[in-house]
Amino acid sequence: MERLEAAMQKARAARRAARGQGDLPPVTQPVGTATELPRQPADWSGLTRIELAPTLAPRQRLGALMGPQEAAPYDLLRTRVLRQMTENKWTRLAVTSPNKGCGKSTVSLNLALSLARQPDLRIILMDFDLRRPSLAKMLNHSRTDSLALLLEGGADFAEQAVRFGPNLALCLNQQGIRNSSELLQSARTSAVLDAIEARWKPDIMIFDMPPLQGNDDSLGFLGQVDAALLVAAAGSTALSQIDSCEKELAAVTNVMGVVLNKCRYLGTEPGYDAYY
Ligand SMILES: Nc1ncnc2c1ncn2[C@@H]1O[C@H](COP(=O)(O)OP(=O)(O)OP(=O)(O)O)[C@@H](O)[C@H]1O
Ligand SMILES: [Mg+2]
Q1: Which residues does ligand 1 sit against, CB inside 6 Å?
Q2: At what angle do helices 187-200 and 2-19 cross, to 10 degrees?
Q3: 198, 116 in Cβ contact below 8 A?
Q4: Which positions ≥6 away from 78 have C-beta within 8 Å?
Q5: How far apart are CA 72 and CA 9, in angstroms?
Q6: pTM over 0.90
Q7: 2-29+64-261: which CATH architecture?
Q8: 261, 275 in Cβ contact below 8 A?
Q9: How far apart, in whole angstroms, are the C-alpha atoms of residue 16 and residue 191?
Q10: What's phi and psi for 218, nearest 5 deg?
Q11: Mind listing the pLDDT tens digit for each residue in 71-80?
């Protein structure tokens, strides 16, 4: 934990230095720079456009792209997230979970897709599970760009990101990397994210993170975001795990809430079932 705290302090100090600021902002203040700049529309039309095959949505549980019934839980989540982000002037949201396979990537992608259905919003979704990336596979996108290269400053966002529709940009990754923890905690990553936010002016950046247990990738990065959503899976995440992870998260960022995923129940209408 000491190593983590030291790394997070270092990252924050680098952010402050880059922005010419003195003391650390309180954790309830936005850590990004977008709100500090005059809001001018950035041109996203040059980003490479991707299309999603219609068969992909049911196969990958992309309810946000399906009918109103399938989209409803994600739209509800969108509204709650948006309210908190707007009220607090937050721009960066991490999605994590106690253990693996809880549905972080599914929730991150659906949330991003649901937010992007609001045409006045611009969303960037980044696959920050650098050890085991999955969003590219979920979207059946086989371009071999490396997110690590972008974070190391060796590639430009305009080359690396792809665009779905006019207002959702995705930073995808094909190959897992081994030094993910160091990369996520590096001052360079922090500076690259600041530069992306300043140049491309997203309203919300969503980071699909690894689980909290197992390695320090998520915890080490969370000082860079304004808030985190904790995804738990009904049936496989113990209450005690949710509790301890919430506390761990609260020590480094604002906890926006817990999403209970994979929780199926029958509603009053025939055939109705819900994910949350
Ligand atoms: N609401 C749900 N109901 C049923 N299955 C789901 C639900 N959400 C996700 N899944 C399935 O659970 C599996 C894991 O989902 P996902 O990859 O989104 O989880 P993750 O938390 O990102 O996993 P990892 O920790 O490996 O990154 C996938 O097969 C996905 O389709
Ligand atoms: Mg995942």
Answers
A1: 61, 97, 100-106, 129, 132, 134, 211, 261-262, 275
A2: 40
A3: no
A4: 111, 114, 115, 118
A5: 39
A6: no
A7: 3-Layer(aba) Sandwich (3.40)
A8: yes
A9: 10
A10: -70, -55
A11: 999 999 999 9
Alpha-carbon distance of 91 to 30, in angstroms, equals 7
- For 274, the token pair is 């819900």
The CA 11 to ligand 1 mean position distance, Å, reads 30
Delimit the domains of the chain by residue range.
2-29+64-261
Distance CA 170, CA 113 (A): 11
Overall size of the chain counted in residues: 276
Q: How far is CA 178 from CA 16, 20, 69, 131, 132, in A?
A: 28, 33, 40, 6, 10
Q: Which residue has the tokens 């207002």?
A: 167
107-162 pLDDT, tens digit per residue, is 999 999 999 999 999 999 999 999 999 999 999 998 767 899 999 999 999 999 99
Q: Which amino acid type is present at position 139?
A: L
Ligand 2 center–CA 40 separation, angstroms: 33
C-beta of residue 78 within 8 angstroms of C-beta of residue 203: no
